[in-house]
Amino acid sequence: MSQATSATGGASYAAAGVDIEAGDRAVELMKEWVKKTQRPEVLGGLGGFAGLFDASALKRYERPLLASATDGVGTKVDIARRMGVYDTIGHDLVAMVMDDIVVCGAEPLFMTDYICVGKVHPERVAGIVKGIAEGCVLAGCALVGGETAEHPGLLGPDDFDVAGAGTGVVEADRLLGADRIRTGDVVVAMASSGLHSNGYSLVRHVLFDRAGMELDQRVEELGRTLGEELLEPTKIYSLDCLALTRTTDVHAFSHITGGGLAANLARVIPDHLHATVDRSTWAPGAIFNLVGKAGQVERLELEKTLNMGVGMMAVVPADSVDVALATLADRGVESWVAGEITERGDHSTGAALTGDYAS
């Protein structure tokens, strides 16, 4: 009997391309990784219709504000698919969600994921979830559940996409943002681990379509293959940022994602103030220079698409700078003073880059 028909010869879910048994196998394989993310507030395990989180843990807050965010990994998943490496993009997913949440000073609590595939390959799905679970551990949050959806006919057998949503909490009087920023504050930059998870449509077009490069091609200036560089996981800053909230009077954070450094920093600058970031305080990594040269991409185009070596920024009072830098150094985060906050002039915008990058 063909697998395309049931015992009676009628149509079946399997005939339509959905393999329930493969999905069940994937769930079994991912359980051990999900378990590693558990916090004491999490109730139950995988298999329920909803993830449960004990909200009584929030009673210690006087006025708890819940922060939520959702995001994906974008076209970076195409690199993972082509390389057959699936346990790194989960880190990217957690970073994109939880580093948005921590920007307001919120502690990440829990996350859910959504994995959409053309065909369920249990080991592949489990590998993706492994990466998400590892990312949740790095962010200090629990992975309380998710969904794996099989979409045959819509996606090819090897195609997939990932997305996630997360929740955090912050005390109302500890909420960070533009209203805390003052003239004379200092902008502290935190180094990125590479491209992170933004701008891959440009990167893929430049490096593959225009420059004709291959993923397995070793690039001397990168010190590894192109594929290894492009799959470098996004750095997760959540716990590093929370450490700053405990040791300094940090006023705001800015997660440098799509839109680039200036545009994202401007999102947390009040209307009457201006942030100036000095390019000469750091040198972007080799991958940024490679993309720029290979595609003859103008600097401003690069800067509004890629993070240029900065993944997160903190705005702190001038008298907190030394403590902030020491806190981040103790946590293994490369950081430096990159700019300052001034009164906004008649022709200035929320944030701008000045000078030339260090060589």
Give an account of the 3D structure.
- The structure is a single chain.
- With 359 residues, the chain is α+β, with helices and mostly antiparallel strands.
- The protein is built from 11 helices and 14 strands.
- It folds into 2 domains: 18-174, PurM-like, N-terminal domain (60s Ribosomal Protein L30, Chain: A); 178-354, PurM-like C-terminal domain (Phosphoribosyl-aminoimidazole Synthetase, Chain A, domain 2).
- The chain has helices spanning 20-35, 76-83, 89-101, 122-139, 200-210, 226-230, 238-247, 260-266, 286-295, 299-303, 321-330, and strands at 42-43, 52-53, 64-72, 107-117, 142-150, 160-171, 186-191, 218-219, 224-225, 252-255, 273-278, 310-316, 335-343, 351-354.
- A 6-stranded mixed sheet has the order 10-12-7-13-11-14. A 4-stranded mixed sheet has the order 3-6-4-5, with helices on one face.
- A hairpin with a 4-residue loop joins strand 8 (218-219) and strand 9 (224-225).
- Helix 1 runs parallel beside helix 4, helix 5 (200-210) packs across helix 9 and helix 7 crosses helix 11 (321-330).
- The chain starts with 19 loop residues before the first helix and ends in a 5-residue tail after the last strand.
